[in-house]
Amino acid sequence: METVIKTSTIKDKLIFEFETSKLFLFGNTQLRDQAMESFYKQGIPTRKHEAYKYIRVDLMLKGEFDFSTNKNCSDAQIEPLKFLKDAYVVVIENGIFVEGLSNLQNLPEGLTICSLVDAEKSNSPVFEKHYAQYADVKTDPFIALNTAMTKDGVFIHIAKNAIIEKPIHIIHISTAFKNTIIHPRNLIVIDENAQAKIIESFETMDSTAKIFSNALTEIVVDKHAIVDHYKIQDEKELGYLVNTTQVIQQKQSVFSTHTFTLSGSLVRNNLTVVLDDEHIESHLNGLYLTAKNQVVDNHTVVDHRKPNCNSNELYKGIIDGKSIATFNGKIFVREDAQKTNAFQSNKNILLSEAGTINTKPQLEIYADDVKCSHGSTTGKLDEAKIFYLRARGIGIINAKKLLMHAFASEVVNTIKIEALREYVEEKISKTFE
Amino acid sequence: MNEVIEEKISTEYKYGFVTDIDADNAPKGLNEDIIRFISAKKNEPKWMLVYRLEAFRHWLTMDEPDWAHVSYQKPDFQDIIYYSAPKPKKVLKSLDEVDPELLKTFQKLGISILEQERLSGVESRVAMDVIVDSVSVKTTFKETLAEKGIIFCSFGEAIQEHPELVKKYMSSVVPYTDNFYAALNSAVFTDGSFCYIPKGVRCPMELSTYFRIEAAGTGQFERTLIIADEDSYVSYLEGCTAPMRDENQLHAAVVELVAHKNAQIKYSTVQNWYPGDKEGKGGIFNFVTKRGICIEENSKISWTQVETGSAITWKYPSVILKGDNSIGEFYSVAITNNYQQADTGTKMIHIGKNTKSTIISKGISAGFSNNSYRGLVRIAKGAENARNFSQCDSLLMGDKCGAHTFPYIEIKNNTAVVEHEATTSKIGEDQLFYCKQRGIDNEKAIGLIVNGYCKDVLSQLPMEFAVEAQKLLEVSLEGSVG
């Protein structure tokens, strides 16, 4: 009974905060009101919500939380996080776009990067057409909450035919000193024939406070566009992240997304890719390395709406300590979507005795001329392989590391940006230490 | 103690209930008086009535589940007759005394009791506990079984004659608190089968029950309890058919299996109830709770099911692998056609060490139907070296049907090896072409391919069923392709 009271408290606080700060929030009040209403109906999910069965966000949200968004970060602090030397860097601190910390000089033709607030102010037609059109507030309470309460984020637009060679790196950094809830929101629109590489990294500054980040990114991939999207989640022990990514793809586009969860006390990824026209290709890759008391939950939905599309999904995890990892992947093939090829694979290694892995690979199919499959395996490191290596003079620790690297490399090798791949490999090596 | 029971029975007795005790049917509706009526009708001991009432009171606090991937008009529980019995004529000594009307119906269903008895000289034979309208009319082969010490009788009889066994095992696998329909069943079940295989006995024949829903507007709530004591073996067949009915009928059965040390239980089902007409009107609602427990080491429980009937199927035969080295198996073929909906699968709960489970599920959907596999594999912390292999394949026929897979895998032990794979596809054009080219027409070719596709499961069925099941697959898919 107690938990019910407490969760309703945080819900009440959120609603109160919304009502009092509503006037200062940018944009369409009607949209925000509707979203809040939807959040009010759904509430903070508890164990009884099927989609949040394995992750207790409600327990995490107990206690006092602040909603302010201070800027505390200095140039020196942000510098080491800019791990890609040759990139356009966007810094979002506590959910607010900070131009001073970003590197956005000499943007090439066709690339627009600005804060969400500025995009709204400038009445950009692209912004107006796409903003909040894809992530449906009715489907998830965190989408509703973000839509209602977001203060800022980044708007990226890549114009027709523009090919952006350098990657665009969005750094989400949380620096609060009090327990804080933030709602960063990004909108990325890639027009017809355009190409881009986008990296989102999630970091926290050393602090003593819990930071709950309810981040949402909408990505629009127009006809013939090619987009590479990466997420590097490395929020350390005080980071709590619910990260929604909503992607819509148009005709003959190619979209690849890669999610690397390296740390963070609680990470929930809601990734939805909608294939809204024919001849689309989608790739969803993920790697989660969990330890200690971490809880990582990956929810993916691939929604095939039209015929002749291909999707491919590969998620791998190594689970250590008392951590709990969840993979819930759904392939949805609608009535129209004949000739769909959809594949999904989830593989896990459970290192420790206390770790838990929950997997739920789902197929929901309403068309008959399709090829769909999913596979899921869970096991420990192969004793025979360890023996093979040890027989050749490699110590047990190194043998295990080697095997874990080999296991992870299938996902890591899908990274097309070399500097990023090196960075991730280095991070993974550190995790295995 | 008696006072407590007395109090339980007498509380909440709100309505003055006057019943003509000769009445065959209980009035429509459900309340404590109906439960008392059923219990009195069956001449049950007080502890049974207490159990029923407790279950009913718990049921009142529960909500009907809606998580399954099915949609239907929820049954009105007050519009169901919970008890109907055929008039007891006299004690039957031979089949000649069985109501000829009844025999005719059985002949229509293709199961001839006469034939069964004629076969009684043959070694491998099928004993039948015939259930018509919720009451066991005739139990055959009982004496032969009794020689071996095997108890195989109706549930009602077991309550009268073996109360200690019923008390010990009933509700131990599926408690009435388990789910909505299990609670309902516990409160109102009218009859069912009871089977006890003593230590070291290998049951010499396949035990079989034919269920049948007869009187219009009667819901059937059977309960089956099978106990295999140490080192014993039993194979149990359950087959169902129902005549055409233009009204939804609710069926909420509970099946409990208990396997002791080194014991083996094989439970096979062929379910072919009325699935509703081509427009999806009518048909049986089949909400069943089936669960077995491998309570001691080296035991094995195997479920095999061929599901072709029912408008709505909602069924998850499960195994709790509690004893070390125990084995659970689940083989299933589920076919849905027209507007049928099936949400079926299994649960394998690994608790003991070195436990193994295998899941093979084949779903076939045609017409406008929806067919879902929903399964859970849970490896508990102490389940060292647990092993699971699951394979769920779906076959789609036509572009208006759906096939879905919802597996849940929860692993808390790092020595476990769990594999799951699922595929969805349609019948290969090349396979069809190959058959047609050799002069096999479309419908036959599909039957052939489907039977091949389901072979892994069909081969698990006992001989008596295997042939029947193959025919059933073809009949179920008739007219679905064209």
What this model shows, in words?
With 433 residues, chain A is α/β, with parallel strands linked by helices. Chain A folds into 2 domains: 276 residues, no CATH class; 52 residues, no CATH class. Chain A has 10 helices and 20 strands. In chain A, α2 packs antiparallel against α7, α8 crosses α9 and α9 packs antiparallel against α10. The longest helix of chain A has 20 residues. Chain B is 24% helix and 33% strand. Chain B is built from 13 helices and 22 strands. At the A-B interface, β19 and β20 of A face β20, β21 and β22 of B.
Distance between the ends of chain B: 67 Å
Radius of gyration of chain B: 22 Å
Number of helices of chain A: 10
Number of strands of chain B: 22
* Low-confidence segments of chain A: 1-7
Mean pLDDT of chain B comes to: 78
Give the biggest beta sheet of chain B: 10 strands, mixed
Tally of DSSP helical segments of chain B: 13
Query: What ranges of chain B have pLDDT less than 50 throughout 5 or more consecutive residues?
Result: 8-22, 87-93, 114-127, 131-139, 211-218
Relative strand content of chain A: 35-45%
What oligomeric assembly is this protein in?
heterodimer
Q: Into which percent range does the helicity of residues of chain A fall?
A: 10-25%
Our measurement of the CA-to-CA distance between the termini of chain A, rounded to an integer number of angstroms, reads 43 Å
| Biggest interface, CB < 8 A | A-B, 34 and 35 residues
Strand content of the residues of chain B, in percent?
A: 25-35%
What integer value in Å does the Rg of chain A equal?
A: 21 Å
The order of strands across the largest sheet of chain B is: 2-1-5-7-10-12-15-18-20-22
Shape of chain A: globular
